[in-house]
Amino acid sequence: MKLVAIAVTAAAAALLAVGASAQDTAKEIQRYRDMIAEGSPAELFELDGETLWKKPQGPKNVSLEKCDLGVGPGVLKGAYATLPRYFKDADRVMDLETRLLYCMTTLQGRAPEEITKRPFGSADKPSEMESLSAYIAAQSKGMKLEPGLSLPKEKGSFELGRAIFFQRTGAWDFSCASCHGQEGVRIRMQDLPVLYKPQFARPVIATWPAYRVSTSQFVTLQWRMNDCFRQMRTPEPTFGSETTVALIHFLTVTAQGETYNGPGIKR
Amino acid sequence: MNSIRRALVAVFVLGLVRPLAALAAWNKEAFSAKSAGDALKNLGIANAQPSKDLTVEIPEIAENGAVVPIEISSTIPGTTALIVVIDKNPFPLITRFDFKEGALPFVKLNAKVGETSDVRVLAEAAGKYYVTTREVKVTIGGCGG
Amino acid sequence: MPGPMKMRATLGQGFTDVRVLMTHPMETGQRKDSEGKLVPMHFIQNLTVKVNGKPVIEAQTSQAISRNPVFSFRLKGGTKGDKIEVSWVDNEGESNRTEVALA
Amino acid sequence: MKILALAALMVALPAGAEPTAADVQNVLQRDLHPRGQAGMDRLSQDAVQRACTESRDHPSAEVAKSLQAGEMKSISFPDGDLIGDWKKGEAIAQSGRGMTWNDKAGEPAGGSCYNCHELSPKEMSHGTIGPSLKGFGKKRGTGNDVQHYVYGKIYNAKAYTLCTQMPRFGPSGTLTPQQIKDLVGLLLDPASPVNQ
Questions:
Q1: Which range is least confidently modeled, A10-24, C69-83, D109-123?
Q2: Which of A75, B23, B86, D129 lies deepest, with the highest CB count within 10 Å?
Q3: Quick one: average pLDDT of D30-50?
């Protein structure tokens, strides 16, 4: 939004002029966040997601209602709060979107290429994954985040995620920790949570996926990983790859125990 | 705007003709106005008095101008309309809510605020106008890429 | 076809709280798409709230209402079973409506 | 079934051990794909990235000294005055574009400077990952040594502090020598807003 960009200087100057202390600013921004959280358009995406969950699709013309998200076929209540976790049928750790991809291919008989052609939508046209994520995540509201960590493959996934988090790579030598490894710093005006520390990861992870007001889009953790890699100037991570799942797993384990409070609303 | 239409608008404003649709119509002149003053003039509003009974809840700092929440409630007896004007927006008039028997003069909405600006909220009660003004500052975050 | 709407009405102390979400792009006519073309203005202009068929709120809105609008209202009193209806019309003549019965 | 097949093709990691930087590089090579100008070569860690990953950005003094010396050799300083046009420098500092898979290759990139640094006091929306550079020229002067230090640091910050988070704008092909001179101008020129 160009309009807003132009406003930056003026806003900043005004902030300086009133001599607002950093604390007051933080308090006011928190009030802003609380106010917008009260009426989140995320619910509109939940409605779309419910329709998609129940809609027969693919060569087998069946819905996703028999999809097992980890707590039994078709069980949605609390399912999101247990992800990522190991799935025996696929013999790998999966996050929500990767599991949905699995169900779409196995239950509905659809080609993964067709499903992942457009995994991230636009404000005008959300993707299937986004709407489904909104619908499914909403049914874990109020439950504690308990991603899998007891099985060897779950431990391996968590360890891999942590190692990727600190890997310096890409054209600009960044790791995830380049931005998310230092307390009290920000990019432009955006505060950066230190995501390998539980106290910072908890409130952040407990509100993903989320409606993003700056783009009017519903965004998922697969999208968040993808766009961070883009800004790190690396090649693109494949949707549902072990790399993205391991990172999401690492972040979610770091936030474990937090009460899920999404789908959230982000700047 | 042609003269016939201007005359018709004038007639509506004077209340000489009140077709059912009049209230529900969209006030093109007021919404197309490029200054807060012109917008208010087109709504027939003059001499709005500051009032403590017109409560406006709005964050002082908005992280994103695309969504700025505004909550308004009026305890001024006989409030029949609430109006929102954002001075620095390209088209300052944001909305006009008319309340009839059965509704309380309360509304919460999200507006786009282009840059740091005064936000004026007006109430109409028994043919008089009241106003509360708040400033909202707009910042930006993120990688900017 | 317009996207979904969602409404929630809760009986409070002496009034009814109504919150309604609408799917709408609320295009200002100033935004450019990914190909750099201006997206034409497209926004909700009129909003009506009815209780048991009787209009209680009539609103006019500009393109500066945020995308995917959210509105909260308060209605006087309220009885179980009251039918609350919200409808909108945009500048292209498109419209949508939703209703709930007060529980 | 490309995506699911990939999952079966696990990179063999020793059970129970933490993955090394080399293991992670193999995983990334498998799980990422080239897009636009972002090719797979960007995932091959060089000695600097490897040393910083393995030490979590705290390399030993000897390692830092020897690798920094190597990085210093990557910098070729242009002849003559290095103070370019601060106005162009300000635009480069503001822009966060360039080098991503959806930026067009060959189009001039920005330096993303304000993402991390405070520079001109007029721009309050600045990041704080890097130190404030407000008033930099006023404090340091405009001498030949300072010009070379600033040019060198923007060209390849890793020649000065091995595990800094600042990208190597020269060797990565992000900024041209002229763009870097314009940024030197932004920092040092007495007329630049940075020094007001």
A1: A10-24
A2: B86
A3: 97
Interface ipTM > 0.90: no
Question: Quick one: tokens of B20?
Answer: 């059912």
Does residue A31 belong to any structural domain of this protein?
no
CATH 1.10.760.10 domain extents, chain D: 86-195
- Which residues 6+ apart lie within 8 Å of A255 measured at CB? A145, A198, A201, A202, A204, A205, A206
Which of D125, D129, D165 should we substitute to test contact with B (largest number of B Cβ atoms within 10 Å)? D125
Please give, one letter per residue, the 3-state secondary structure of chain B: CCHHHHHHHHHHHHCCCCCCHHHHCCCHHHHHCCCHHHHHHHCCCCCCEECCCEEEECCCEECCCCCEEEEEEECCCCEEEEEEEECCCCCCEEEEEEECCCEEEEEEEEECCCCCEEEEEEEEECCEEEEEEEEEEECCECCCC
| Subunits with 3+ C-beta pairs closer than 8 A to B | A, C, D
Are the C-beta atoms of A265 and A211 separated by less than 8 Å? yes
Closest approach of B15 to chain D, Cα-based (Å): 50
CATH class of the region D86-195 = mainly alpha
Q: How many residues does chain C have?
A: 103
Specify the pLDDT at position D148: 98
Residue D82 confidence (pLDDT) above 70: yes
B27-138 CATH fold: Immunoglobulin-like (2.60.40)
Q: Domain for residue A168, yes or no?
A: yes
Q: In this complex, is the C-beta atom of D111 within 8 Å of any C-beta atom belonging to chain B?
A: no
Which CATH number covers residue C92?
Answer: 2.60.40.10
Q: Is the dihedral of CA A200, A206, A212, A213 positive or negative?
A: negative
Chain C interface test: which of A1, A3, A40, A47 (most C C-beta within 10 Å): A47
Residues 24-83 of C with CB under 8 A from A: 25, 30-31, 66-68, 70, 72
pLDDT exceeds 60 at position A13: no
Look at residue B67 and tell me whether its pLDDT is greater than 80.
yes
In a domain, A133, yes or no: yes
Q: Pick from B96, B102, B107: which is nearest to C56 by CB?
A: B102
